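Friendly challenge for the regulars: who can give me the structure tokens for this chain first? No prize, just bragging rights.
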Amino acid sequence: MATTAEILLTGLPGSGKSRIMQAVREQLGKEAMEVPSAENILRQPCQQVWCVVDARPMFDETQDAAALHHLAELLKWADGVVLNFSESADLSVQTKWSKWIKAQCALPIVRVTYGRFPEGWCGFETDDKSGRQSQTPLTHDQSPLQACRFDVSKIYLDHLLMGLDALRRNWGIKIWRVQGVFYTYEYVNRVQLEGTPFGLQPYAAEADVPSGWLLIQGVDLPEARLKELVDACQLSF
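First reply, four minutes later:
Bragging rights claimed.
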């Protein structure tokens, strides 16, 4: 498959590629598209691949080995790294991410703050040091994400967070993305849940987002076990 977009965006699920796509259009006046993880993309000579990394989550190289391995594979194809959500990331965490990235590949890094590139930044420089050829297939080693969607009314949020984290860390289940909006027993207002391969973060839900749903995406997900967890978290004890 060939594409005319000048910038190809790659990265782990939930890293904020849509946010960067908008910034590329508004600030740089270029077209960008996300590279599907399970599809071959033919890189043209005029195109660059940017790997988007969420700078907020702290990571553990042992517990998060699967996610970091996949990210390292993506970096092999990249011309540069976009460190996203810098405004919300602790400086020590940003530094850890920068060191880890440089240990994988010697790539230039740009930080994005509040969805904006640095003033005057025009993109990564183009060079031929990588020796990549035109029409080179850009392929990822991750299988298509499996999706499990649940209708939920009211949930014990703490139980859900602990259960999903235990499945990911203790059982090695590859939960790559979690999204949902629902009522909880802990809070009066609705909660919006966002999850990436490195963790889960609840927020106050925006008023115009529909509620009553939970979407879990990953690879080889145990649907029965996930349903059992979600059902248990909805019980009123």
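The radius of gyration is 19 Å. The helical segments are 17-28, 65-75, 91-104, 157-169, 223-234. Your move, everyone else.
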